[in-house]
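can u do me a favor
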């Protein structure tokens, strides 16, 4: 018998992941499907997933490459000003879409949605509220004059608070939250209509890490890493066992040459280590008793889908994070590349 500590939990869902397409999809999918039973797939491909037909085709490209027959991709619709209400309604009722994703115009990778003011899509939000379709939001107020470190807090004040007054029963997931303002807003709302996902990198790092010993392009993501006070507030949020926070890794692979570039892309590819990072943080916070609800229950409950039946066992045994994934002559450098974590999966 090994003496390593083990934790068995219901197999988690990754409620926010970018799998990309074609040759990248082919190489990154295996990590997500190894650790996660289901994953909510972001629609910001170079040609975004804006309708049912595109979602069905993308889902089957994912399933065709999948080696885990039990893995289930859950698709999202990329909102634009022109999103058809019928498309959204049919997609949701026929379980093609689990929700729709709102990217304020130019807020991040592939987000030329032209949505500069939410009033431009009120008719869409009204429908979504009516049919109880979840709205996933990249919550950053994106204006050149707003300091990049303040964009999330300002989005809450200027956009989200007024929006929730108009649509109090719209189910909203504030994605990849990074600030103490977002944590308190979600906690105080204490509502079955508002939740937040939290990434492993925002739990493990703060903005100092991005400049440690030199600029670290692999740690550049959006929303950008914040001060330690915010990192601590996220760690506290998950260790209190609050049901309105759950796992969304925001694993976002980019080719090395697109990261190490004068205009390097935002995004951290963490799929090979995300679950191991979460368990590391829960252990550090002495909150392992809440690991399972954060990883495997809160998201499913919020999205109103069944809790998974499979389980996964985490074992306190060191593992080395793989160094790179070759993609033709290029490669992707994973989060914590080559580093040792104290946890593995059985
Ligand atoms: C994501 C990507 O690369 O698609 N990038 C990121 O920094 N997180 C988009 C996103 O979720 O913002
Ligand atoms: Zn993302």
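np, heres the sequence
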């Amino acid at each position: 018998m090994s003496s390593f500590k083990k934790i068995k939990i219901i197999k988690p869902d990754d409620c926010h992941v970018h799998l990309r397409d074609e040759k990248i999809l082919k190489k990154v999918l295996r990590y997500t499907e190894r650790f996660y039973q289901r994953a909510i797939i972001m629609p910001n491909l170079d040609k975004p997933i804006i309708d049912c037909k595109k979602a069905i085709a993308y889902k089957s490209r994912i399933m065709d490459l999948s080696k885990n027959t039990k893995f289930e991709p859950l698709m999202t619709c990329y909102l634009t000003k022109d999103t058809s209400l019928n498309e959204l309604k049919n997609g949701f009722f026929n379980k093609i879409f689990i929700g729709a994703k709102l990217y304020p115009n130019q807020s991040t990778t592939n987000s030329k949605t032209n949505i500069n003011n939410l009033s431009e899509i009120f008719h869409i939000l009204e429908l979504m509220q009516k049919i109880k379709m979840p709205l996933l939001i990249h919550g950053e107020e994106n204006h050149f004059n707003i300091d990049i470190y303040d964009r999330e807090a300002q989005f809450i004040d200027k956009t989200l608070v007024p929006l929730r007054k108009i649509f109090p029963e719209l189910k909203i997931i504030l994605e990849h939250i990074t600030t103490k303002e977002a944590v308190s807003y979600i906690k105080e709302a204490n509502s079955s209509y508002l939740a937040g996902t939290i990434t492993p990198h925002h739990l493990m790092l703060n903005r100092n890490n991005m400049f440690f010993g030199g600029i670290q392009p692999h740690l550049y993501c959006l929303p950008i890493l914040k001060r330690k006070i915010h990192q601590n507030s996220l760690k506290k949020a998950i260790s209190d066992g609050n049901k309105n926070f759950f796992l969304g890794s925001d694993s976002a692979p980019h080719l090395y040459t697109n990261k190490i570039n004068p205009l390097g892309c935002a995004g951290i590819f963490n799929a090979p280590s995300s679950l191991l990072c979460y368990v590391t943080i829960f252990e550090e916070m002495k909150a392992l008793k809440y690991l399972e609800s954060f990883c495997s229950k809160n998201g499913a409950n919020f999205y109103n889908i069944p809790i998974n039946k499979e389980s996964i066992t985490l074992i306190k045994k060191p593992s080395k994070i793989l160094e790179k994934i070759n993609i033709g002559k290029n490669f992707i450098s994973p989060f914590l590349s080559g580093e040792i974590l104290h946890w593995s999966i059985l």
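The radius of gyration is 19 Å. hope that helps!!
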